[in-house]
Every structure is written in C-alpha cells, then in structure tokens.
Amino acid sequence: RKGSVIGDSVLRQPPPHVLPEFTSWRDEQRAWREGVAFYDQSFHMTTTFLRGADAVKMLSGLAVNSFDTFGPGRTRHMVMCSPDGKLMHDGILVGTGENEVALVGRQAGHNYVRYHARNGGWDIEVEEDEIFSHHSDAHRAYWRYQLEGPDAPAMIEELTGGPLPEAPKLHVLDVTIAGKPAKALRHTMAGGAGAEFWGPWEDGPAVKEAIFAAGEKYEMRRVGSMAYFTNALELGWIPRPMPAIYSHADLRPFREWLPETADEVKWALGGSYNSPNIEDYYVTPWEIGYGNVVKFNKDYVGKEALEATKDDDHRKKVTLVWDPADVAKVVESYLSPDELPPLYIQWPRATYSTWQFDQVLDQQDNPVGMSTYCGCIWNERAFLSLAIVDPSMAEPGTRVKLIWGEPDGGAKSIGLEPHRQVEINATVARAPIGEQFYR
Questions:
Q1: In terms of DSSP bridges, do strands 46-51 and 125-129 run parallel, antiparallel, or are they unpaired?
Q2: What H or E segment, with its residue span, contains residue 330?
C-alpha cells in the first residue's frame, strides 16, 4: 500500500452516500491496520435525543449499566435486557447537556427507548434523527466521521492543532477542525488507534475537506460500505444479536406498539441453526462479551434474573477461522453445472440475513453453539465468523465445524438460490482476533 497514489477523483469528489468501494475492499481493510482509514458514519446510524428532567432516570431503569458518574460530556455503552435477563438492545449513550442525552446505534434499539419515554408518564421530550435513507430533506443533526489506524494519531494532531487532550475513558472531548467546533471520542470500529468526531451537520463539508487535505500526506483511505461492515470481525463485536423481545409476557404491550415498518418486525432470521423456539436465539450480556457493564447497584429491568445467573458457566464469544480448503470447495462448486452448489458466499461479508445463526458442531457432531456474523478479513488472509459456543469449546485451537446453508434447500426468497448444506471445518480463535490469530 505504501507508495501508492490516491487521485483527486477518489478523495475530492465524494458522492452523497458512501460508495461500496473507493479503492478496493482489501486495500481499505488494510488501511485500518497499516495506515489510516476514514469512515463516514453520517448516514447509517439512528440517533434518539431525550431531553427533560427524567431522561437519565428513565434510562437508568432500563439499562444494566451504572449511571453514578454519567452526565454531560460522558458516554456509556448502554445495554438493555428483558425481564428474564436476555439481551434486548445496546448502543452508545452520550450526555449532550444538562438533562439531555443522545442514543446512537442500530435503529431497532431506539424503539424500546422511545416506547418507554412516550408511554411512561416521564418528563421527557423525544427527538428522532433517523438513518439518512429515512430523511426527505437530506439533512441530519450531526455529521459523524472516524479516523483509525497507526497513522491516525499523527493525522489527528495536524487536524486539531495538537494531540487529543488527556482524559479518562468514556469522556467526550471538545476539539476544533477547520475552524469548526466538534466533539471527539476515543473510539474506533476495528479496535485500533484513532477517534470518532461529530458536529453540526452544516459544518460537515468543511470538516471533510480538511480531513481529505490532511489525508493526502498519510495516504489515507476512505472506507466504502463493503469494507466498513467487516470491521466488526476484527473488533470481535457481534453487530446484530437477536433482541429478546418476542416471548416474554411483560413485553407484549411493546410488541403491540411497534409499527409494521419497525426493524424488529420486518428483519429476517436465517442460517442453518434451526429451532422452533425463538428463545434459543437469545443471548445474555455475558455470552456476547458485555458482562463488564452489568452492575447491581441500582434497580432496572432484568436485574433479578441477571443476579441469579451471574456466577453461571456462561457460553463464550469466539472467532471461528474457516478452513481455506473448505471455503475453496464451496467457491469451486459454482463452476460445476452437474451438481447443486452450496449457498453462495458473498465477499467480503457473507452474512445474508439480518439475524443469521449457523449451527456449530464439535468433531463428534454434537451441537456446541451458533455462528453469527461472517466474512473475509484481508489483514488476516482468513475467512472468519463470530460465534457463541459452550465453555468447553472456547479454547483457541479447538477444532469445530459449522453447517453452511439453509435447511431443505433454502428459504423461498429472491435473494437465496436453491442450494445444499455443507460442513465447513474451523478453528477457534480469540475474539477480538487482531494480531493474536492462533497461527
């Protein structure tokens, strides 16, 4: 990558949305490991603003987090659970002012918060800032950009006039870029060095132009949507766990309140893990790696159930490294007209269903877990998936296999051609995998 040239056609003529690729998804993945990567996150994340005397009090009753030190200029990875202690939603919560907060993340998580804010008799005003595709006026509250990679700190110094101020984790920092005020948070998508920045929407073009100008020196890469949605595989973050809203009786009023256009209503369930019981797809905070934020110093939905199970031997989140030979066999089958091929593997991200769960077996064909998000990471030269497995199978180097493809030839969907299921062997590695790849 070093020594290559980025033309003005790539850097200085941005489309209104993020392109699938700006150079190539391989080159863009390498940038966050080897140089500096630029993510434009202004378009796809939903934001809900809550303003009023009861905003934090209401959220504290829904979230498993402690709010003792939360306030203006502070953040939380906010996690919410069902009454029986199963994960419902998570997102980033930012204290944006006195009695004012902003929740940022997947659209599904916002509905539960909005439902309680509007139906609980709280002193709360709700403002919805939907993903860009839902806006008719092409305008949002904030632009949101992120710089990540080993060269990112030096580039950030040039942009902001010095290193980011020293501050404890989870603190929001005030900075200036191109003469425009902005906020900064030491947070990145693949776990490397860097920060996320945001500010008023109208300042976005000027800030982006300054980033592009500084980026030429560092051979910055703009990350397109193809690469962007794979960085979770390096970070070890499962982006779309099944929200545990579909079975508990206490959640029926919320389910009935949801509009038919809600993500929780229209998103699809897929994969080879096939159970008639929806609760088999639920996970706990511990299983997905959120156990560090679970606190018991206040009351909230699900506390009793979580407290009763906190000392259990929980399933573990791991990375599965798919055997290259088995992946190659699947790809080779597409060129054989004499057989029904396995399910097509999309590159770089192979997750084809919103909630995708594939069956994981041990070497004796016993079920031991479920594989979720999957795709190719060029930095590891490996095809990976994030899985939740029995504790006995979580040691790096353990051999497992997963079933790839839908049962009975696949769902009758325009997006799924007829196919056959196959076994893909895999090796357990840590999550996040990073440079600790088991080799």
A1: antiparallel
A2: helix 324-333
Amino acid of residue 215: G
Q: Which of 189, 198, 196, 172 is nearest to 70 (CA)?
A: 172
**What's the 3-state SS for 161-219?**
CCCCCCCCCCECEEEEECCEEEEEECCCCCCCCEEEEEEEHHHHHHHHHHHHHHHCCCC
Q: How many CB atoms lie within 10 A of CB 103?
A: 21
- CA distances in angstroms from 401 to 9, 51, 320, 322, 385, listed in the order given: 44, 49, 9, 9, 12
pLDDT digits (tens, 9 = 90+) for 81-110: 999 999 999 999 999 999 999 999 887 789
pLDDT digits (tens, 9 = 90+) for 348-375: 999 999 999 999 999 999 999 999 999 9
C-alpha Rg value of the chain to the nearest Å: 22
* Bridge partners of residue 63, in order along the sequence: 80
Say how far apart CA 96 and CA 284 lie, in whole Å: 29
CA 243 to chain centre: 14
Q: Which helix (H) or strand (E) holds 368?
A: strand 367-377
Identify whether the C-beta of residue 25 lies closer than 8 Å to the C-beta of residue 51. no
Give the CA count within 13 Å in the CB-facing half-sphere of 37: 30
Which among 34, 17, 22 is positioned nearest to 234, based on CA atoms? 34
Q: Which residue has the tokens 């900064």?
A: 184
Number of neighbours of residue 387 by Cβ within 10 angstroms: 29
pLDDT at 275: 94
Q: Evaluate whether 348 touches 230 at the Cβ level (below 8 Å).
A: yes
Q: Which residue has the tokens 């004796």?
A: 364
Q: Are 327 and 383 in contact (CB under 8 A)?
A: yes
CA distance 160 to 168: 19
Question: 209: how many CB neighbours lie within 10 A of its CB?
Answer: 14
